Amino acid sequence: MTNSSARLLIVGPQGSGKGTQGVRVASALRIPVVSTGDIFRANIKEGTELGQKVTAILDAGDLVPDELTSEIVRDRLSQDDAQGGFLLDGYPRNTAQVAHLDEYLSGRGVALDAVLLLDVPRPESIARLRQRALEQGRSDDTEETIARRLDIYEQETAPILEVYGQRGIVDHIDGVGSLNEVTERIAAALSARGVLATA
Ligand code: AMP
Question: How many CB atoms lie within 10 A of CB 132?
């Protein structure tokens, strides 16, 4: 797979494997992953001012305010390593954030090339999140927040797919299967768009 300045977004319910798949695809394309969840968790771990602001929000499974999240993403996308492309994971998560991202990207004369939607049925997501809770002990992987985060995903994130769907850039990827199977499906979808060439 070769680099072709791809600007990508990966979307899927929690437990869909989007984090893992995003890292795989981005490293094949040599573009950075910009994961808002990872940025927040790193700040919480380091005890920064941002971390202190968002700890309770993440623990409750709620969304960090849009303005704050968008500002963090703009800063990250302005860095040198993101000029040749990037893979967004977990942002935008609602239509307000889509508008913020649109404004930022169009100001730079670029746009998203593809939105990868990992389709995983809710019971499967829940089962995977329970497993992750056992293995990694993430503080937001409790029964209550798992349900809350999946509800928020369905209510707020699904509508962004309508917006991107109208632009014809959404690729539905079946997220059930082995890691390699899902990666291959993503590679095939990107190939079909001319975004990803198989080396
Ligand atoms: P994730 O790792 O993507 O599941 O994100 C973990 C948590 O970080 C979410 O439950 C939210 O509290 C917060 N978060 C991540 N991305 C966003 C976003 N785009 N907007 C608001 N909050 C976010």
Answer: 15
What residue owns the CA closest to ligand 1's atom 15?
Answer: 37
Ligand 1 atom with least separation from CA of 149: 10
- Measure Cα distances from 23 to 29, 123, 125 in Å: 10, 24, 19
Structural domains in the chain, CATH included, are 6-191 (3.40.50.300)
Indicate whether residue 149 lines ligand 1 (CB < 6 A): yes
pLDDT digits (tens, 9 = 90+) for 31-51: 999 999 999 999 999 999 999
C-beta contacts of 187-191 below 8 A and 24+ residues apart:
187/1, 187/25, 187/28, 189/114, 189/116, 190/6, 190/8, 190/25, 190/114, 190/116
Predicted TM-score of the model (pTM): 0.90
